[in-house]
Amino acid sequence: MMLKIENLHASIEDKTILRGVNLELNAGEVHAIMGPNGSGKSTLASVLIGREGYDVSGSVSYQGQDLLALSPEDRAAAGVFLAFQHPVEIPGVGNLYFMRTALNSLRRQRGQEELDAVDFLALAQERMKLVEMDQTFMGRSVNEGFSGGEKKRNEILQMAILEPTFAILDETDSGLDIDALRVVANGVNALRSEGRAMLVITHHQRLLDYIVPDRVHVMAAGQIVRSGDRDLAVELEEHGYAGMGQQRNSEAPTPVGATR
Amino acid sequence: MTIATALGGVLASLERQAGNRPDRDPAWLAEARLAALGWVGAHGFPTSKDEDWKYTGLDPILAVPFEAAAAGTARRVSADMIDAAAVDLGGPRLVFVNGHFAAALSRLTGLPAGAEVTNLAAVLAAGPERLEPFFSHPPGEHHAFASFNDVLAEDGAFIHLTPGTSVDEPIQLVFFSDTGGVPLMSSPRSVILAEPGSRATIVETYAGIDGDVYCTNAVTEAVLAEDAQIEHYKVQDEPVSAFHLALLDVRQGRNSRFSSRSVMLGSAIARHEVRVLLEDVGAEVSLDGVYLPQGDQVHDNTIFVDHAATNCTSHQLYKGVLDGRGHGVFNGHIMVRAGADGTDANQNNKNLILSDHAEVDTRPRLEIYTDDVKCAHGAAVGQLDEEALLYLRARAIPLAAARGLLIYAFVHEMVDRIELEPLRSQLETLVACRFARGDQLVQP
Question: What class has domain A3-246?
């Protein structure tokens, strides 16, 4: 098993957000997590990559390691990747330089030889085809002035370059039109492999038409309240999240923004 | 504090030198020096009550019994030491040791016929009357340290460009200090005279030996006539055992263009004051500065731009990165005189604070006495973007390197403005190393 989350709780500034998440993920699998705003989906992603500021309890075992004990950079070096929901703009840091620094940091921490600028450029150019990006993006500062769709493609490009073992895609479909969605989904699908697991966080079933998951989980009020195959996503699309939170966890309080 | 106690050592050494001084100085200079000394005696040194010195305490400087640096101490300094302090730009290079010209370390070849590049002492010996306008400004026009430079200055660079002369190679001025264990005050005085339509690039570098206690009290004056263009750079990389006080005084004629880019790295207390008088129509000035105090360093940028004619333009962009208990000052004052219509002036100061104990005082000021102007100013103080740090760390970049990368990105804009290639590379390395913190070197 690649990832095992047990009874994961997280709170921030005395506000409890995750209330006992349990999840198992095997290599090669793609799982989707759906749920209304405020159900804790993005917090789960944040806790998994090591964002500071949360009080966390429970356990997360990743390839047999205690993931929660690692710093964000060590998690990344161990193969954990998050495609951010809101990728930050970093003026003054070139996109190409940033990605080479990232890949070389990862390679160094793994005891691999670093890539020089020429070899890296060749690699980047090849991976850019996956997300239909042209080279002008590489000369610009990281995400600076990128449209919403360009930022999301830039995230998937980083995933293609860093080749993580476990990738979390946090609302990668939000703000994308149908063409951009197709490009991003094609990129993600090309990166599916036997050795790689993915956790796809989304609001909408639409993304799952393109990235077909092995399992679908529904999150509400900080817990996974239902799990099933992809038909669960279709059911959600038809009936919405209404009532979903009560089926297994009637004691869970109403999450902010959730519809009952 | 009176001059009798403050810098008493310098005074004592002045008295010791008094015997031979009248022989060398023409009467007007002896008078000017006396007047300047009298001014300091009457007014004393600035205190925190003086508007322009409010943020930078001088007590640590005034407590040291400095002696005035004498000529003839250059023999301990090797060409390698100079090369290490200031990357050789390949053109003419004047080296000064403790403020005195070191001919053996200098190179004055490759200059066009219309460019006179020499040292001030040589001019004082051969035709001192040319310097009279520079030493005979009304007493008290500046302040105690500029006056003190009037009293003590014997040498420095002298650059005279005749009309239409264009010097392609950068003229490099290296001010190196080697005290030999005696706390020295060196007082270089440089003069740049750019006649109509002349052009040159001038790079000043200040450096010394780690552990040496000294005070550089430098004055550089530039006078640009019509259509003259001077590109000026200043790198202040003195050891943290030293102090650095400098005044760059610029007067600009019609349609002249002056730019100055300052990089402050060193010194315990450093103050770089720039005063620009835009005295004729259409003059343009652009001033940039980076200051990076850390440890207990103080870096003070005091700027006064005086728009005294119509249609002049001034731009200022200063960026500071403050770490440790470092203290930065941006004190920028733009004056737009009555009648200076069509003025376009802006000033911007941005600061990045890296530690809880670092401090910055930022004070952009506009003083406007006419209506037809376009003026803007702004100041910002911030910390490293936590979201950006997480983003980089989530891409396997270790915390220290991620911080270095973001800091470097903040100042990179300034280094990028340096068009002189070997100088830009040297500064990129200096700045990058400063923030790499023993981790991997972060440098694009």
Answer: alpha beta
